[in-house]
Each structure stands twice: as C-alpha cells, then as structure tokens.
Amino acid sequence: MDISTKNTEAPPPAPQPAVAQHKRAARGSTRPGDRIFLGLSRGSGIFLLVIMAAIAVFLTYRASLAISKDEANFLTAFEWNATAVPPRFGIAVLAFGTVVSSIIAMVLAVPIAVAIALFLTHYAPRRLSGPIAYVIDLLAAVPSIVYGLWGALILVPHMNGLFGWLNNYFGWTGILSWEGGAPRSMLTVGILLAIMILPIVTNVSREVFRQVPQMHEEAALALGATRWEVVRMAVLPFGRSGVISASMLGLGRALGETMAVATVLSPTFDIQASLLNPGGGTFAQNIASKFGEATEQGRDALIASGLVLFVITLLVNGAARAIIARRKEYSGANA
Amino acid sequence: MAKRIDVSGLTAYYGSHKAIEDISMTVEPRSVTAFIGPSGCGKSTFLRTLNRMHEVTSGGRVEGKVLLDDEDLYGAGVDPVSVRREVGMVFQRPNPFPTMSIFDNVAAGLRLNGSYKKGELSDVVEKSLKGANLWNEVKDRLNKPGSGLSGGQQQRLCIARAIAVEPKVLLMDEPCSALDPISTLAIEDLIGELKERFTIVIVTHNMQQAARVSDRTAFFNLAAVGQPGKLIEIDDTERIFSNPSVQATEDYISGRFG
C-alpha cells in the first residue's frame, strides 16, 4: 500500500527531462542496485575501449617494426619475402585481391539476397517463407572451412564449363579471358564468398523489409499500385539504408574471410588482369598461409598487412555510414 | 466524373470471423456520406471493401456486390489494381511516402498510371495541391521531403496525392482523428470543396464532424462483441441527427449507448 501511494505521487513524466533525471538519479543514488548496475555497465564500456586501444597499439607497434625494416615499398611492391635478409614485402597484391574478390562477392550476392528477402516478406505464402528462412539461417551456421572444402572439391572442378563459356564470349574484354589453368582464381573465390555472405545479407534485409510500416504499403496500394510497384514505391526506398547496412556486414565478412579463400585460391604474388586466371591473394588468406612458418620478423610483416586490412574495413564502414547519412532526411526513420 | 456507389448484400470476413453482414446502401455522386458507429462495428472494414483494400489484409474475403455506376467491383475478371485507381483512399494516419519529396508524393499515382504527357506532370501537381488547399504552404519547397510537414499538412498532402489521379470516389478513413482542431477544420472545409467533383465517403468517430460535413449519414452497430457489424440505418444527415427512425441511432447519437 505504502509503495503504491508513493508511486502515484511521483511527478508527471515529461519524456526528455525524465531520462536526464533518471541518469542523475542513478549516479547520485545510494541504492545498491543502481550503483552496482551503473558500475557494471560503465565498466563494460570502458573495458571495450581498453581492448580496442590495446589491439590498435599492438598492431601499430609490431607493424611499424616490420615496415621500418622493409627494403621494398610496403604499399606497392609485388613480392612477399618477409623472412629474407633484408626483408622485402608489399601489400599491393593482397589489397587488390581482397578488394576484387569482395566486390565480386557483393555484386553477385546483394541482388540475389535482396530478391530472396523480398520474396520471403512480400511474395511467398507464410507456410513456405518460414522453412526457407530457416534453411538460410542454417547456411549461415556452416563453418567457413566446410565452405572451403566444398569450394575446392566441388566448385572448382565444376567451374571449367563456366570459365570456357566466359572466355569464348567475353574473353575479348581482358578481365574475363582464360588461359586454361585450374579455376582457382579470383572469380571462383568471389563466387564462394558470395554464397557465404548470402545468408547474412538476406537475413538483415528480410528484417528490414518486414519492418516497412503497413501504412506505407497501403498508401501505394490505394493509389492503384501493383505488388511490384508497392515494393518499388514503399518497400525498397524504406529498406534502402538497411540493405546498405546488411551489405556492409556481408562485405566485412568477405574482406576478412580466411580459410575458404586459402583452400580455394592458388596464391601467387602477382596481379592477374583476368579474373579467371589463377593467382593473386588476399590479406587474410596470406596471413593464414604464411603465419605458421613465419619467423618473428615475418610475423611482424603479416601483422602489418593485417593492420592495412583493418584500415580498409574502417574506410568501407565509414563510406557506408556516409551514404546512409546523406539520405537521412528522406529515410523512413522520421516517418 | 463522380460515380454512384450501389452496394447490395455485402458481407466481409477476416478468416472465419464475419466482420460485417448483409450491408446494402446507395451513395449518390457528388455527395458526402458519413459512417458513424461504435468502435469495432465494421465501418472501416466496410469502407475498405469499397476499393477492394479489405482483401489485402490476410484472410480478408468479401461476398456481395458493389456497383460503381454499372460496373461490379467484385465481378469476375475485375482487377483490384484498376479498381483502386478509380476509388481513392485517405487513411487515418497521414502516410506520405517518407522517401519522396512533396512533388513526387503527389505525382506518385500519375507515374504509376504512366498516362501523363511530359510537362503535364507539374501542372497536375500544382492543381492537386491547390485542390487540397496546400499549394501556398508548400510551393517553395516542393523538393523537400513530405515527412517534414506538420500532421495536418501531411494529411492534405495525402488528399492531394489521392485526387491527383482524378478518382471517381474518394474514401476517407477517420482522416482527422490524428489532427488538431485547426487542421481538422482545414480538412473539413476541403471536403466541402471536394464534393463538387468527387463522391466522398468518410468514416468518423466525431459526430459533430459527421453533422458538419456530410449530406447523408449511415449508422453502424453490432449486437455484441464478436458479432458482425450491421448497417442500422442510412438517411439524410439532418434527419439522423434530429429525428432518426431507429431507437438505437438516437441512443448512440445522444450518448445513451450500451
């Protein structure tokens, strides 16, 4: 009884000030529950920052050791002899391979993922969409080494036909010509990565499309829109920033994917103009392949390449945020 | 332009639940008809059967006839998409497309139809915004997002969007229930002007509003929760509010329901 009367006497809630008051109350509170929770949550936040800082310091320190000894140009050299004396290594091939394979994966996976997400949310009957979504979730749970084995044992032997066809019709472009080597090339890696990032992009897109407010879809319907026009007018514009975020999650996975790439690609330290000819390498694949046998000096060089991958990932995320922010005024968020 | 609506024996379901039962009425062209009645009596459901929006809801199903002049909206081979191009709708909550500018919102329906000449588009947008009494407030910011307008302006934007495609009938589902009194007045004035050109049906919970804007009023009621809603009576608004022929209508209007 006592408690309930106290509650009714509480000042009427005013949305913004109330939050501020709560915060102040928690900080100055003498109640043990508040103090413990405040300590825990603040401590977790600080802990995260400390870990990030520690990783950054470690990477930068070890990388600077390696780069200062590098006799070749770290950014442009096409070689990796990090254990030689003096060491000569550069990340150009790795940066190229990482970016190219990820772009291929994005180009292939994002349209398909968006199409699947639209099908699941707006076209498929409910008893079909549930099981399909479940299967897609399963795809996300497959370990990447399994994808790598599947890629090496099944995908690679089956790529010959596609590569021959591409070479016949598009070989003149240069980037799709094929000299007949084993199809352990950037395109194969890109296709494998596309399959691997498909589930995450699909799932996030599906969540976004499902959250399109009914009233926007009805607005389009009431104007005489067909189902596709509803998707085009209300669903896709509303889901745009969400699809970009989904793609970035997928891109993050593609950029950092290690075992699957290492299993499928036959790495060389040069840049192939054609996506079909075997060769090239990616940051993560190179680290995985070389780390075991590397000397102290070689490991520092690999860490330096890891630092570059870290920076590339940051840049990509920053670009994505910029794209989303630029359209903020028109986003569904202020509807 | 404006067309007569002739409903006979209309029953609508949500799955196995019967929401409204056996409704028949006629709505004259160039008039305003108001639907009143307690919550859950099916007046919004009935409104949504008039442009085949009811069947968009999962499990939504309709039996009976709705004639628009002589064309049965539920006839075999009638495409609901083309029905909705003839019968426009304004919703309870203003719902301009958040990702589109004011101009694009009004032009959206025309672009769907694809039946406009180049250069004609901006004329139609201007005409529709003027028709919705919104032109003076937005003419300098047609390229700004529609979601930046006030609630009342957004609702008038939605009306402009609906009338831009020159529908035969305009359905309004509690268009003022999310608006302040001044915006409500603006919309009511607008309804008075629009009835010169369109057949208008409006659902409202506000009986003063029904009395102010409508020529005819239909009263819906349901026997009990879970029972289907029924049309109790439809008559001239003046008569409904002064001397209704059914006791239940008088009880509802004078506040003695339940």
TrEMBL record, chain A:
<comment type="function">
    <text>Part of the binding-protein-dependent transport system for phosphate; probably responsible for the translocation of the substrate across the membrane.</text>
</comment>
<keyword id="KW-0472">Membrane</keyword>
<dbReference type="InterPro" id="IPR011864">
    <property type="entry name" value="Phosphate_PstC"/>
</dbReference>
<feature type="transmembrane region" description="Helical">
    <location>
        <begin position="301"/>
        <end position="324"/>
    </location>
</feature>
<dbReference type="Pfam" id="PF00528">
    <property type="entry name" value="BPD_transp_1"/>
</dbReference>
<keyword id="KW-0812">Transmembrane</keyword>
<dbReference type="InterPro" id="IPR035906">
    <property type="entry name" value="MetI-like_sf"/>
</dbReference>
<feature type="transmembrane region" description="Helical">
    <location>
        <begin position="132"/>
        <end position="156"/>
    </location>
</feature>
<comment type="similarity">
    <text>Belongs to the binding-protein-dependent transport system permease family. CysTW subfamily.</text>
</comment>
<dbReference type="InterPro" id="IPR000515">
    <property type="entry name" value="MetI-like"/>
</dbReference>
<dbReference type="GO" id="GO:0006817">
    <property type="term" value="P:phosphate ion transport"/>
</dbReference>
<keyword id="KW-1003">Cell membrane</keyword>
<feature type="region of interest" description="Disordered">
    <location>
        <begin position="1"/>
        <end position="30"/>
    </location>
</feature>
<feature type="transmembrane region" description="Helical">
    <location>
        <begin position="45"/>
        <end position="67"/>
    </location>
</feature>
<keyword id="KW-1133">Transmembrane helix</keyword>
<keyword id="KW-0592">Phosphate transport</keyword>
<feature type="domain" description="ABC transmembrane type-1">
    <location>
        <begin position="95"/>
        <end position="320"/>
    </location>
</feature>
<feature type="transmembrane region" description="Helical">
    <location>
        <begin position="186"/>
        <end position="205"/>
    </location>
</feature>
<feature type="transmembrane region" description="Helical">
    <location>
        <begin position="87"/>
        <end position="120"/>
    </location>
</feature>
<dbReference type="InterPro" id="IPR051124">
    <property type="entry name" value="Phosphate_Transport_Permease"/>
</dbReference>
<keyword id="KW-0813">Transport</keyword>
<dbReference type="GO" id="GO:0005886">
    <property type="term" value="C:plasma membrane"/>
</dbReference>
TrEMBL record, chain B:
<dbReference type="InterPro" id="IPR027417">
    <property type="entry name" value="P-loop_NTPase"/>
</dbReference>
<dbReference type="InterPro" id="IPR017871">
    <property type="entry name" value="ABC_transporter-like_CS"/>
</dbReference>
<dbReference type="GO" id="GO:0035435">
    <property type="term" value="P:phosphate ion transmembrane transport"/>
</dbReference>
<dbReference type="Pfam" id="PF00005">
    <property type="entry name" value="ABC_tran"/>
</dbReference>
<dbReference type="GO" id="GO:0016887">
    <property type="term" value="F:ATP hydrolysis activity"/>
</dbReference>
<protein>
    <submittedName>
        <fullName>Phosphate ABC transporter ATP-binding protein</fullName>
    </submittedName>
</protein>
<keyword id="KW-1278">Translocase</keyword>
<keyword id="KW-0547">Nucleotide-binding</keyword>
<dbReference type="InterPro" id="IPR003593">
    <property type="entry name" value="AAA+_ATPase"/>
</dbReference>
<dbReference type="GO" id="GO:0016020">
    <property type="term" value="C:membrane"/>
</dbReference>
<dbReference type="GO" id="GO:0005524">
    <property type="term" value="F:ATP binding"/>
</dbReference>
<dbReference type="InterPro" id="IPR005670">
    <property type="entry name" value="PstB-like"/>
</dbReference>
<keyword id="KW-0067">ATP-binding</keyword>
<keyword id="KW-0813">Transport</keyword>
<feature type="domain" description="ABC transporter">
    <location>
        <begin position="5"/>
        <end position="247"/>
    </location>
</feature>
<dbReference type="GO" id="GO:0005315">
    <property type="term" value="F:phosphate transmembrane transporter activity"/>
</dbReference>
<dbReference type="InterPro" id="IPR003439">
    <property type="entry name" value="ABC_transporter-like_ATP-bd"/>
</dbReference>
